[in-house]
Amino acid sequence: MLERHVGRPHAEEKINNFTVPLQRKKQMLRPWMKIMKRLASGHEYEAMSDEWVAKQGESQVMYNHGMIRILPDGWIYPGTAPKFLDKIQEFDFRQEDVLVMTFPKSGTTWMQELIWTMFHNPNLDNPQGDDKLWNRSIEISLDMMFDTQRVEELNLETLIEVLRKVSPGKNEEDGLCLQLIEALPGRRVIKSHYPLDLFPADILDRTKVVYVARNPKDMAVSFYHFMRVVKIYDYKGSLEDFVKLIMNNELVFSPYWPHVKQAWQKRNHPNLHFVFYEDMKADIMAEMRKLNDFLDTSLTDTQLKNIVEHCSFSSMSSRGEPVADRLFNKHLQETSGGFFRKGRTGDWKNYMSEELNQEMDKWIKDNVADTGIPFKWGD
Ligand code: A3P
Predict the structure, then answer these.
(1) How many helices (H) and strands (E) does the chain have?
(2) What CATH number should be reported for the domain holding residue 294?
(3) How far apart are CA 342 and CA 308, in angstroms?
(4) How much distance in Å is there from the Cα of 341 to the middle of ligand 1?
(5) At what angle do helices 354-368 and 216-229 cross, to 10 degrees?
(6) Which of 170, 227, 317, 348 is such that its CA lies 20 to 30 A from the CA of 296?
(7) Domain around 159
(8) 310 lines ligand 1 (CB under 6 A)
């Protein structure tokens, strides 16, 4: 919780790893933010300064309502996030749902498709399986991203039409994805880049969570590519600068460590299943059998094998992008891949300079020391 230092203009507050001079902190608050400084969950948040936003905007697309940082962990999100986070506190999670929770680029899509297929297409004969994944397994953390200054790239009208059809009378401004998820029938596979801490405190009593973690070097390279190829981010900086944004907890969806650690600490909870992307790559059938137990799906080994094949990197990529094609920068998509880039472990070695690698090693060592999360780095 924040300590207040009223009347001490030169005082500083230590918030997680951020030292924020109080005078600067005041400047970071926009007038419209002042009335909404606390989330329903009790977390406090602050608007990032105009200078900070302008600096970020030099290399990537920003958001109409600026960006915020949620305390105490320092989550960096578009300025509209509080409205949707508050709705999540009241959201009706069902016992049979699964939240696929990840820091971006950690294997979310692969896990979503595996679980959706286990639930709804175990014999690979459901025509719904041909629909784009983002219509079948919707992201609960996506509504805030629609504040992007490139919203026209998203063609939200199509999604709004779907909402009108499935839930007449609903207002998309109350959360397009949130309300589409509400209307999904059966066992829902809900994607989340929000961390455990931002869900209701009893979330693990209410629903199952599958958490996928990926070693931060491969995650960073994959995220860098993704933010370059997807038009609503259009990242223009170097890989070095990008990795520094991650290490300084300044990139949207950051910080990485509390995200992974919060789930790691709960890895023995009966309703949380913690998986490493690298273990999925090394022995996917072993991971499928664990998932089959955790999700109570009672599928046979033959069904699991067929699902694995259906969800392999080559099968998924041959079926096309999981989101609308128009979101991608065509040139980069053709030269470096789109959503499905390489799907490997250890690819970071092809991109990182020795100096950058050493900086990351120090960052990882400092942060992993207290938990010993056993990441694997690839051959
Ligand atoms: P790369 O960019 O390293 O190739 P997310 O789904 O969390 O955004 O993660 C995307 C990463 O998972 C990308 O990594 C993507 O290629 C990889 N991926 C997607 N589907 C996969 C699959 N079926 N098998 C292995 N990796 C997959």
Answers:
(1) 18, 9
(2) 3.40.50.300
(3) 17
(4) 7
(5) 120
(6) 317
(7) 94-368
(8) no
pLDDT of residue 326 exceeding 90, the answer is no
Neighbouring residues of 330: CB distance < 8 A, sequence distance ≥ 6: none
Any domain includes 213: yes
Q: How far is Cα 218 from Cα 107, in angstroms, rounded to an integer? A: 11
Distance 107 CA to ligand 1 centre (A): 5
Q: Which of 110, 111, 191, 327 best tests ligand 1's pocket when mutated (most atoms within 8 Å of CB)?
A: 110
Compute the distance from residue 86 Cα to the ligand 1 centre, in Å: 30
Residue 89 is assigned to a structural domain of this protein:
no
For residue 327, the model assigns a pLDDT of 87
Q: Whose CA is nearest to atom 9 of ligand 1?
A: 105
Q: Count of domains in the chain?
A: 1
**Does residue 323 form part of some domain?**
yes
359: Cβ below 6 Å to ligand 1? Answer: no
**Structural Rg of the chain based on CA atoms:** 20
Residue 315 CA: which ligand 1 atom is closest?
Answer: 23
Is 255 a member of any domain?
yes
Q: What is the pLDDT of residues 100-135, one digit of tens each?
A: 999 999 999 999 999 999 999 999 999 999 999 989
